[in-house]
Amino acid sequence: MKSLAELQAIRDKAKANLNLRKENPNAARVLVGMATCGIAAGARPVLNAFTEEIAKRGLQEDITVTQTGCIGICQYEPVVEIEIPGEEKVTYVKMTPEKVARVVNDHLVNRNVVTEYTIGANTK
Amino acid sequence: MRELSLNVMDVAQNSVRAEASLVTITVEESDKDDSLSISIGDNGCGMTEEQVSQVIDPFFTTRTTRKVGLGVPLFKLSAEQTGGSFEISSRLGEGTTTTARYVKSHVDMTPLGDINSTVEILIRCNPQIDFVFTRTNDNGSFTLDTRELRAVLEGVSLDTPDVTEWIRQYLEEQTQILFGGA
Lengths: 124, 182
Prior knowledge:
- By secondary structure, chain A is α+β, with helices and mostly antiparallel strands.
- Chain A has helices at 4-16, 18-21, 36-41, 43-56, 97-109, 119-122; strands spanning 28-33, 63-68, 80-83, 90-92.
- Chain B contains six helices and six strands.
- A six-stranded mixed β-sheet of chain B has the order 3-4-2-1-5-6.
């Protein structure tokens, strides 16, 4: 059973790490479009895949995953935007959970944009 | 939407945009009464009577990025297509409550789906907002209230990875107890 005592232990551990954790100015941001259009197109499994892949690699301190609204390109949902400080924002379109591992590995870890998944490669 | 839990995620985000500090999500189902109801309440900015009548219109939205707003109309349709009902009550400055009632056995009933995932994502992505999630069936009910968690966490954020994992497991466990039939 999950207990509040367990939560207290988590709190104490988190507080001990607080200095380490506080505001990483170089943290990358993964923004998953989660308005009606994004959700209907399957954004939730994509968001979960990012969270899992980032946790698996222990990168939670360096990358934050969050929801964003509709940016007006509903036909390309699920849309994921990646913001890395000092670099141009990259927009990935028609994302799937299967594409996530490669985006994390190539783009977020090794800083090579996965061009074939970007909006530039998918608009005609 | 393939799952009602996705409608919930969508409509709950209207509460987030309405600058609510507390969002209440209640799912009550009963096999005895062949019913399921989903209610999403918030203490956000609320709407005028005129706006309430407009949100049911798919061609109304407050957004500027596009001309349609399908969140509420899709949620309404999902309930009405089962012979259920839908209502929004709202007061400017006080908040909004959206309730959808379903006839569970209807052929056009959309499955509820992974509601726990919806709740977990909402908490993780909006750690500054409090959520109260209650799930009830004929056997009983359980509640997750982030205000209680916050009291224990003493300033540690709800989106701390270990905390979100605790929330995920808590929801899974409670759901199993509620539906496990043990």
